[in-house]
Amino acid sequence: MTIVQKIDNGSTSVVSASGVSTSRRNPDIAILIYDFRGSGVIRNALRIAEAARIDGLFVEFVVVRHEGPFADTEIPVSVIGDSHDFGRAIDTFRATRRLHDYVDARKPRILFSAGNHIHHIVGPALRRAIHRPIVIMRASNDMEHYRTRGYGPLEQKLRSAVVRRIARFMFDAADHIVAVSPELADQVEGYLRSPVRQSPPVQSIFNGIDNKAIRALARSPVNHPWFGTSDIPVIVGMGRFARQKNFTLLISAFAKLLQRTPARLVLLGKGPELEALSRHATALGCADYVDFPGYVSNPFPYLSAASLFVLSSTWEGCSNALLEAMACGCPVVATRCPTGTIDILDHGRRGPLVDVDDYEELAAAMRERLESPRNSEQLRAWSETHDIQRTVAGYLDVFRSALAGAPGADISRPKFDQNRPPSQRAA
To answer: How does pLDDT run across 186-203, given as a tens digit for each residue?
Structure first.
């Protein structure tokens, strides 16, 4: 049963689901997120939190909003937002003072900021805090997607300078940074490199998936009329219907594919672009062959039964969906977007990679993959190299190293970095 603690003006009140106040010891690790939405950042934060709890560490979440499909967690929750809803950006900014109050009241040994969306309030919140926890930040997403949007060299240079300043502000309070792919680690290191100050150490730990659980869940039946009723291939895409995921590109490529290949497209998820995507399919004349079933809590039967999974994103960090599709034995095609897809697909050896925003190239890659052997066992075997146990072992090493030396822990040489070449891994 979730325990909720509300933070307001420096006072703390720990309230259980029954409304009875309780007292708890100070957390070893406080995990900072905005809410419990059904995203990859939250899924991974929950997995890391549970692994740390099993390892004997006292963990709690610090959230701006206690809502979302994953809100019913066994991990205690402290809420630093208020009752107003001005949207994620404003609500997060408004929670800065309450994060400061939380840190001084609860005195966590480690503050683990779990995603790019929340890092920027950590530095301002800690600036006047009496208690200073060890700050570990997880670089969860690419910051350079402006490079894929058709800007000229001068505008790219200007945007790079702006992003560099944003990155330095975001990660200013970090004692250590964990990036979710080697490509992203290199990107963050490049932005933070400075001749006048030492930047925090950056290591890479891939996102991981629970292969065993996924395969068990994939055995459930698919509740959709397009699966198993004909030989027409069914293509699946999934994620939040937002600009990052670029489902407009996938629908455009699908319409192009239909000119030569009968197929169906199922898009799992929800988000602000749903109506626009539906209109786009209608405008291209393929609406009868595209379905939007909504958010599905267990997408794995769909992936197991699908002929192809397509990741059409403009940017990522390290796509859980791509790994999950391969764990289900589903062939994959992905955009060569920053960051992580090149690493996950082993530079195209595990599935075709295409340029971002090139719908004709994507359509050709989809057709080619549909006409090729499925190779499900090889895909499942590759997904095992990204199992969640490897991921959480890496984070536990980082946490143990930090706590072993606190205060003033030396975590500049983490023990675990499974994604670097052997010559570059920390000892």
So the answer is: 888 888 876 656 778 889
